[in-house]
Amino acid sequence: MFSQGVTVFTIRGIPIKLHISLLLFIPYLAFVATTQFSSIAAALGVPEETMQLPPLVWGIILALGLFCSILAHELAHSLVALRKGLRVRAITLMMLGGVSQIEDDDPDHEAWIAFAGPLMSFGIAAMAYLAYLLASGPSGVSATLLAFSLTNLVLGVFNLLPAFPMDGGRVLRGLLSRRIGRERATQVATSVGKGMAVLLGLGGILSFNLILLFIAVFVYMGATAEQARLGAQAILRGMPVARLMTDRLGEARADESAPAVAERLLRHNLAGARVVGPLRPGDLDRELGVVTAWDLGRMAERGELPLTMAAAIRSDLPRVHARDDASHSIDALTAGDTGAVAVLDETEHVVGLVTPAEIQRAMALLGAVQAGARHLGVAGRPG
Ligand SMILES: [Zn+2]
Q: What residues sit in the active site (predicted)?
C-alpha cells in the first residue's frame, strides 16, 4: 500500500519517498493553509500594509512548512527506531501525512518510538510559538508563525488519539504490552482503534471533512489488518516454516534472460527460481539468490524487467529458516513489500518460499482440521 513512491533523497540511510497522492494533497494543503492564514491574520488584526505578501503566497509557504514538519515528525519516529537498533525501510510522505516503515517487532520500544513523532510536533509548535512571540507586531510573518505553531500542535494531539495504527494507538499497545502481553495488548488497541475510526468517520461525515473520513477509513483498515495478522499468527504458531513453504523452485543461470525464465516458471508451475552463477567472472558457480515469480511480475509491470536474472535478485528479500516457527514468517512478510520470504536450510541454501498464498492455504487447512476436530469431539462424545 505504501510501497509506491519515488525516493527523492535519503537521511541516515533512510530512503525518503514521495507518494503520487501528494500531487493532490499539496494543492489542497496550500488551499487550507491560505484559508487558515487569512483567518488568523484577521484575528490578529494584521494591517494590509504589514502583510508584505499576498495571502496565497503565505499559504503556500505555510503548506511547505507543514510538509517539512510532517517529515520531521516521521524522522523522529525513525531516528528513535534506529537508535533502538531496528531497521527503517523507508519514510513515505503521502496524502494523509507520512508513514515510517519500521520493523517494529520489538514491543518494548514501540511506545517510545510512537511517542517521538508527536513529541517532535509539540517541539516544533513550541519553537514556532516562541518565534511568533518574538516577532514584533502583527504582520504576515507573525500570522504564518502562529498558524504553523497551531497546526503542529493539532498534528501532535491528533496523532496521539488512541486510534491504532496511529501513534496514540501504538503508544497504548506498547504500554499495555508490558502488563498484559503483546497479543492481548494488540486486541485491546485494535478494538479501541476501530471504535475511534467509527467516531472519526462520523465526525468526518457531520463536518463534511473528507480528510477526516479518509483517516477514519485508514484507521479502520489498519486495525482490521493488524487483527487479521494476529489471528493468523495464533493459528500458525507451533508449526515449522518447512510445512508452510512451497518448495516448487526452479533453477536459473545468472546470465539467463528474465522473460525466458518467467516462461519456464509458468510452464512448470513454479513459484520462483534459484539463481546460480559465478560471483565474479572466472569463479566457480554458486547460489547467488532467489527470484520469485511475484518479483518478475512486478518488475515487468513497472517496465523494469532486467536483461539477466543476476540483476533481478533482490537483496532485501526477508529470510527465515525452515525450522523457524511459521508465525515469524508472517512478520517477515508484512514488514516489507517483497511479496515473499525466502526459506533457508541449515546450510543457508534456499529451499523454499513463503508467499501470502502459502499462508492462506495453511490457514484454510488448519481451520478445516480444527473444525473437524470439534465435530468429531461432539459426535464422539459418549452418551
Ligand atoms: Zn507519527
A: 74
